[in-house]
Design a protein that fits this description.
Layout: E1 5-12, H1 16-27, E2 32-35, E3 49-50, H2 52-61, H3 64-68, E4 77-79, H4 87-92, E5 95-96, E6 108-109, H5 112-125, E7 129-131, E8 134-140, E9 146-151, E10 154-165, H6 172-176, E11 181-183, E12 188-196, E13 205-211, E14 214-222, E15 225-233, H7 245-252, H8 261-265, E16 268-269, E17 274-278, E18 281-283, E19 287-288, E20 291-293, H9 308-324, H10 335-359, H11 364-379, H12 389-392, H13 404-411
Parallel strand pairs: 1-2, 1-10, 2-7, 4-13, 10-20
Antiparallel strand pairs: 3-6, 4-5, 8-9, 9-10, 11-18, 12-15, 12-16, 12-17, 13-14, 14-15, 19-20
Length: 413
């Protein structure tokens, strides 16, 4: 085994959260070891939409320029089509997404693998030791944590002031530490697919709505490239998996109540079709002795509202600021992070649960409820204010929007 290496931080997982934090720390002169399992980032159908509040987080951490090197394709407009909605009325009510936060020209549409690679490269350029192809690792927590790891058939060991688990939904760091992941019951399923050469949809308009037995999403990335998603009933497990999944997905995307969906569905398949359960998860605390979890490893939000990348970027900023603002990296330092993240995820989970009831339940009764909600919200914009958290960030929405009293009022609509 090679001699023990020593670092300020060992970060396990080179995705958005891990590479983002590695870049922030390395730029500030901290020594960082960044370990990544894959040898190339692939399309595994993850989030490719950064909310306006997530863009602000990227700007505050200095990571926006890195991401902008991959994509500057902001989406200034949002429109909801679907069953029971007149397309002309939908166009007239098109939402200007530039109005949510000053200096942010709408959400950022960005390819996930390319974004990960750009941040990984930025970490290395800033001085982090960035290693790919890690086949095994073992985290030993404590006041002076260590990580034993293997790559290229060689064994290594690193000592650090802190180990950061940023290794995604199925985090091995979390499992090795015995941190329990609490999972909400799945409400429905969420499938994604990337298409190219789909030229019939406006490049500056994202769209979402419910049509038939699916909830659809269209996020243009520029040049005829679109990330598409479909929510569908949990009882239809397997609908968009196995042989022919992409073809079935695109067939389901031909929606009579959605103008332009035919053109999008005629696009060329440019990636895999995969589904995940729509559920939120959480841990009791993302902080251990000598270890902290960030990104999906620390619990993730139901993907129906597309908050994953923004959550990761907030984690990077908060944890990065704590580490760079103190020389004492013991667990107590991260108490503000644990507290803020718990409330952040609770509020975003509330918003996702509301969106699921409105848009990801199907049939005549569900359609009627959706239309009643739209009409009630048009009369009273404060109704369902929790949904604004998806764009502006959960802390900018009044706390009373996320209470059980607010939920009962919404369900009575």
């Amino acid at each position: 085994m090679a001699p023990v290496e020593r670092y300020d931080a060992v970060i396990i997982g080179g995705g958005i959260a891990g590479s983002g934090l590695a870049t922030v720390l390395a730029r500030a002169g901290r020594s960082v070891l960044l370990l990544e399992r894959t040898t190339a980032f692939r399309d595994v159908v993850r989030g490719e939409w950064i909310a306006p509040w997530g863009v602000v987080e990227a700007q505050r951490t200095g990571l926006y320029d890195v991401l902008a090197g991959v994509s500057r394709h902001h989406l200034p407009y949002h429109v909801e089509y679907g069953d029971g909605i007149d397309p002309a009325e939908a166009d007239a009510q098109k939402l200007d997404l530039r109005a949510f936060l000053p200096g942010v020209p709408g959400p950022l549409a960005i390819g996930h693998p390319a974004a990960c690679q750009a941040l990984f490269d930025a970490a290395a350029a800033a001085g982090a030791r960035a290693v790919r192809g890690v086949t095994r690792f073992e985290v030993r927590p404590g006041p002076a944590p260590t990580v034993a790891w293997e790559a290229g058939g060689e064994a290594y060991e690193a000592a650090a002031r802190l180990v950061v688990g940023a290794d995604g939904r199925n985090s091995q760091v979390r499992r090795q530490l015995g941190i329990e992941l609490h999972e909400d019951p799945p409400h429905h399923l969420f499938a994604g697919l990337l298409v190219e050469d789909a030229r019939g949809w406006p490049e500056d308009v994202e769209s979402m709505g419910t049509a038939g037995d699916v909830q659809y999403f269209i996020f243009p990335q520029g040049g005829g490239r679109h990330r598409l998603y479909l929510s569908y009933g949990y009882e239809q497990r397997g609908r968009f998996s196995g042989d022919g999944a992409a073809e079935r997905f695109l067939a389901a995307f031909r929606l009579p109540s959605v103008p332009g969906s035919e053109a999008v569905a005629a696009g060329r398949v440019a990636g895999p079709c995969r589904s995940v359960p729509n559920q939120s998860t959480r841990v009791d605390s993302p902080v251990g002795d000598g270890v902290v979890l960030i990104g999906d490893a620390a619990g993730f939000n139901d993907p129906i509202t597309g908050q994953g990348l923004s959550i990761a970027l907030r984690d990077v900023r908060v944890v990065g600021e704590l580490l760079l603002g103190s020389d004492d990296w013991r667990p107590g330092l991260f108490a503000p992070y644990a507290e803020e993240r718990a409330e952040r995820m609770r509020r975003l989970g509330f918003a996702a649960r509301l969106d699921a009831v409105i848009h990801a339940e199907f049939g005549p009764g569900a359609t009627a409820r959706k239309l009643r909600f739209r009409e009630a919200r048009a009369r009273n914009p404060a109704l369902g204010l929790a949904l604004a958290a998806v764009m502006v960030g959960p802390e900018l929405v009044p706390a009373e929007a996320f209470t059980e009293a607010a939920w009962r009022e919404l369900m009575a609509v």
